[in-house]
Amino acid sequence: MIRETVEVGVIVERRALKNPWVDHAWMPVAVLAGAPAAAPWTELHGTAEVTRYYAGKAELEFFGSDTTMYRENLRSPQPSLWVALRPTDAPPGVVLHLVTVDPADAEALTGTGTDIIEAVPMPVEIQQLLAAFVEAHHVERPFVKRQRDRADPEAMARRDPSSDPGDDEE
Questions:
Q1: Residues whose CB falls within 8 Å of the CB of residue 123, separated by 6 or more in sequence, listed in order
Q2: Any idea where the domains of the chain sit in the sequence?
Q3: pTM for this prediction
């Protein structure tokens, strides 16, 4: 299996809310090409409304079997990375779960309904690495539509009365 990894850093914000049930919300806002030496959950900037943190580093994976999705992402008007934060009981209340370039992976994460998943702009350096990976490993696969077996209406109408369990009346 063809696989390459890139280390990235993730920036998130904790935003104050005016809501009677929830006092704040977490939002991924950026991914850095490379990971800085800062410790996870280092506060970068804070106001009364928004506090920005370096959430930590993640390993971004490129797989040779997924190059079609990567190519479509790169061709989009805004190439993106998807960041998933997962709620936890430990402070600060969320943990960095995943960063992906594949929109299908991000969509699959929405199934739990509890993760925070946001698209952020893909840095140019990562776009260049991903484009080189796609160029090196993409194999065009023709679309093959599956053919259904034709139903035989005569076979469906035929039945053996002796095998019918409803006819066992005595």
A1: 31, 32, 33
A2: 3-137
A3: 0.79
